[in-house]
Amino acid sequence: MTTKRKFNLYCILLLAAVVLSLFTAAQKFATGFSQGWSDATINMQRSAGTANYEAYELTLQAKDPRQCELALTNTATGKTDSLRVSQAMAWISTSQHPTESLLLTVGKMAVIALIPLCFIAFWVVFIRLVWAVNRGNDFGTSNTRRLRLMGWLLIGLYASEWIFQLMTLPPAISYEGYQVSSPMYTDPMLLVSGIGLLVVSQLFAVGQRMKEENELTI
Fold first, then answer.
1. Shortest CA distance to 163 belongs to which of 198, 98, 114?
2. Is 87 helix (H, G, I), strand (E, B) or coil?
3. How far does CA 139 lie from the centroid of its chain?
4. What is the DSSP string of 138-167?
5. How far apart are CA 133 and CA 209, in angstroms?
6. pLDDT per residue as tens digits for the range 110-141
7. Which DSSP category does 101 fall into?
8. Is 54:91 a contact under the CB 8 Å cutoff?
9. Cα–Cα distance measured from residue 108 to residue 54, given in angstroms and rounded to the nearest whole number
10. Distances, alpha carbon 124 to alpha carbons 9, 62, 110, 143, 155, in Å
11. Contact at 8 Å (CB) between 133 and 7?
12. What is the rounded CA–CA span in Å between residue 66 and residue 98?
């Protein structure tokens, strides 16, 4: 098998892995959308009164390790098991919280728009890179720039996830007997892959320089 065929095979495997990950992400999105719709319905019902409510997902850590809040019957064994709550959905009244500023709202919308743009741009650059390699432009300057750009796009995706979650943190919450925090759902592999592509782009630059030096020597 030639080098280019191996390269194309690896690209196909990468695309297959991406399709699988997108399928998994779509399932999670559908589940989250369904839960979000239910939360919004509950919010509307509760907002029919005098106060407005917003749903926040919280991570709860009991200060007493022996503390168990729930006792549920295990239908498989028929026995009662003790459960400790570690994650919960809390509906928090927003009537006493300050209204979200216009700047924060615009920032959220900008980040939401930036995430799909970075994702689409990454795959556009990737397809152009594959096309260039198949045309024989292996260690060209253009490919080096493409790899570097792909790395920065992945890092941008990772940073956008962090910024958006920081923008949507819940207000100050404190429950007796618990340490309360907000879970952060970011994919560290985006950061690792982005830095990895920057390293590979530098290797491409070294290969291009060595190729130019060999041509000058000949």
1. 114
2. strand
3. 31
4. SS-HHHHHHHHHHHHHHHHHHHHHHHHHHH
5. 17
6. 888 888 888 889 889 888 888 887 877 766 77
7. P
8. yes
9. 17
10. 18, 47, 21, 13, 16
11. yes
12. 37
| Residue the block writes with tokens 């907002």 | 47
Block residue for tokens 């790395």: 151
Does an H or E element contain 91, and which? strand 87-93
pTM: 0.68
CA atoms within 13 A of residue 175's CA, in its CB half-sphere: 15
Q: Does residue 84 contact residue 69 with C-beta atoms inside 8 Å? A: yes
Contact 102, 95 (CB under 8 A): no
Task: Write out the two tokens for 17.
Answer: 């892995």
How many CA atoms, within 13 angstroms, populate the side-chain half-sphere of residue 8? 11
| DSSP classification of residue 49 | S
Tens digits of residue pLDDT in 143-188: 888 889 989 998 988 888 888 888 777 777 777 877 887 777 777 8
